[in-house]
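assembly run, all chains below
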Amino acid sequence: MHSSLIKTIILLFVSGSLEAHELTPTYPELRSSYVTGVVSAKLKMWNARMDVNYFKIEVNDADWNPVPFITNERLFKLRYGQRREIEIFLPIDTSATYICTKSMLDKEKMQRTVISSKVCSKIK
Amino acid sequence: MLKIVVPMAVSILATEFVQAQTEIIGNVDSKCIIVSETPGVYGNPNPYQLTTATTSGGVQPIIRFDVLAADYYKAVIEHPVSFSSAPTLDDVVTWTGDVEVSEVSDTDMSTYDSDKIEYDNAHEYQMTVAGSTWFKISSVADYGYNKSFPAGQYTAVVEAECIPL
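ok done. output:
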């Protein structure tokens, strides 16, 4: 068990040199914001995908229907190796359950498949 | 006597200051990382077919999911059912595909393929073991009834999602 955890941690550090996409925390908390009736959640994103420079934020309810939210930029640029703090503002009675970041892909010039990555966090 | 004791005391105190320890604090929390290890390539073994099969000149895309804690996430991978970019097509494209585990960091992940849930073109895996799992995706597109694909560039997207439970 202990060695398995160490292997996993090593793999996670090694993965930094590859094409990775990460969003933390897994379970963000909604906190009251400076606006009455509005709550906010803070997340951190890391882009280690060399082929992706743009990401989109999506907020959905438990049935994956989109819900209204406000953030600084819904579509944002995040270069390879950069981290970004994301703050989402939601009405206090929101049904939001999932906050996700999705990679936006450039058109390729080859006969190939490209990989779209989407990592979500779940509001508890 | 004081001439010896005072410098010694100062020296001991100074040593203690020098040896003051600096802590590095880190938290290991649950998280999921999607790693795009190999983007796939379509081979064109027949005029009417594009396939990622290696025997037909294709390359199968490989995606790795790293999860730090067990039972926190599910992985959903969708093989393509349309082109994201292609020349104008005036006939039907029939899509087939599959997702399978190709490598694991822990032998307890060996049941992932048999336990997965499939719907439409999606393959859903419960990440019940911490560690890394490699998924290999296959994709085949057949055009019309043995009709030749028009010349041009074709791209299809494999969707990989990591969703907290």
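Chain A touches chain B at residues 4-5, 7-9, 11-12, 15, 18-27, 49, 51, 98, 100, 105, 107-122 (CB under 8 Å).

Residues 8-17 of chain A have pLDDT under 50 and may be disordered.

not gonna interpret more than that til we talk
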